[in-house]
Design goal:
This protein is of the alpha/beta class and 380 residues long. It is built from 13 helices and 13 strands.
């Protein structure tokens, strides 16, 4: 149940839904998926894709589709209902209760309030705290909560109902030798750093522009950068890039073309700026799709040395982690990767690590194991 996600789509949520559905089918499960239609046909992967766009295209109105979701559940009679958590969702949890299915709430954004939360202030003004109460209700309905980070789930939820599970990469498509049209220009002697994803302030994309500018001012003209994606900060990145040579902004490209794009680059950069996003005061709760895809493509990863990232990318093993408080940290880390052999060593290690631990198949195997445990407990 993910009606606020477009499939096919470009953003992490769309990729997540598509890959989980596909891998569950490969594991032998019958899967029906409720999503908004994207730009193109639904995947031909064995899952049954059902078009369900939120009313008026507003995900805040998802809950108005509850009766339709109930009807689909009563017809399909699923053993399990998985819903991507949203503040104004919950229709999947209601449908699971209607058909006595295992209810799985997949949580990628904080359910708890952070310091200075606007929602918290509104709740307090309304006295009865309707938003907190509804969020808590969704958690109570769930037999299982799947999340990258325990701290974004209310503390009262019993630990045995929570599974911490990272996202992943399609390691069969994202490979160092992926072929296809490469959407950017490069020379044989270039060292190309790529940033892929949403352009929001806390993704820190503009920091890569500044790092490349400094490197080129030092005479290291082999360093170039390619930016893939769109978002509010893209105009800022383009403005900064207009003052620096060696930078290309591709905008949004189909996700199917990303494997060849990454395989043609040399370094994957994820310059997150946690101070630019208040909810991250709870800790780095994302499971960063870009990092897993960089690693799968055999790229050494450059990222700040912050909580959780350092457990995904080990410093000097799969990439280089820099001090986020050092204004030259990203520049220096990129500069260290001028050596092709060093990039190759880190990239091979990253590829090996993501294949073993962070593929979508591994994600879905762990997910189905956790669900099976709940079903067994019910039978007992």
């Amino acid at each position: 149940m993910a009606s606020d996600q477009q499939v096919p789509g470009h953003v992490g949520g769309s990729v997540h839904v598509s890959n989980v559905a596909s891998e569950l089918v490969k594991l032998g499960h019958d899967v029906e998926v409720l999503v908004s239609p994207g730009d193109g046909s639904f995947p031909d992967d064995g899952a049954k894709w059902i078009e369900m766009t939120p009313p008026l295209g507003l995900r805040q109105l998802r809950w108005l589709q509850t009766s339709r979701v109930m009807g689909i559940a009563e017809q399909f009679q699923p053993d399990v209902v998985i819903e991507r958590y949203y503040n104004f969702g919950g229709e999947g949890m209601q449908a699971a209760r209607r058909v006595n299915a295992v209810a799985v709430l997949e949580v990628n954004a904080p359910i708890v309030d952070y310091s200075g939360s606007r929602k918290r202030m509104i709740d307090r003004a309304l006295l009865i705290e309707p938003m907190r109460r509804y969020r808590d209700w969704q958690c109570r309905q769930a037999d299982l909560i799947v999340t990258p980070r325990r701290e974004i789930v209310p503390s009262w939820v019993p630990p045995d109902r929570i599974v911490e599970l990272e996202w992943g990469a399609d390691t069969t498509r994202f490979t160092p030798d992926a072929v296809g049209a490469v959407p950017f220009d490069r020379n044989q002697t270039d060292t190309v750093a790529v940033f892929a994803g949403a352009f929001r302030s806390w993704h820190g994309a503009v920091q890569l522009v500044e790092a490349v500018r400094r490197l080129r001012e030092q005479g290291r003209h082999q360093f170039k950068a390619v930016f893939v994606g769109s978002g509010p900060e893209l105009s800022r990145v383009r403005h900064a890039a207009s003052k620096t040579d060696g930078i290309q902004c591709l905008g949004q490209i189909p996700h199917d073309t990303m494997p060849a794009c990454l395989a043609a680059a040399d370094i994957g950069v994820a310059p997150f700026d946690v101070d630019a996003h208040a909810p991250l005061s709870l800790g780095f709760y994302w499971s960063p799709l870009k990092i897993f895809e960089y690693m799968a493509a055999g790229l050494p990863v450059v990222a700040p040395d912050i909580d959780r990232l350092c457990s995904l990318v080990r410093h000097e093993q799969e990439g280089l982690l820099y001090d986020a408080n050092d204004p030259n940290g990203l520049t220096n880390a990129l500069g260290r990767l001028s050596n092709q052999e060093e990039r190759g060593r880190l990239g091979r290690s990253g590829r090996s690590r993501v294949v073993e631990h962070f593929g979508w198949r591994a994600h879905c195997e762990q997910l189905t194991t956790a669900i099976a445990r709940v079903r067994q407990h019910r039978r007992d």
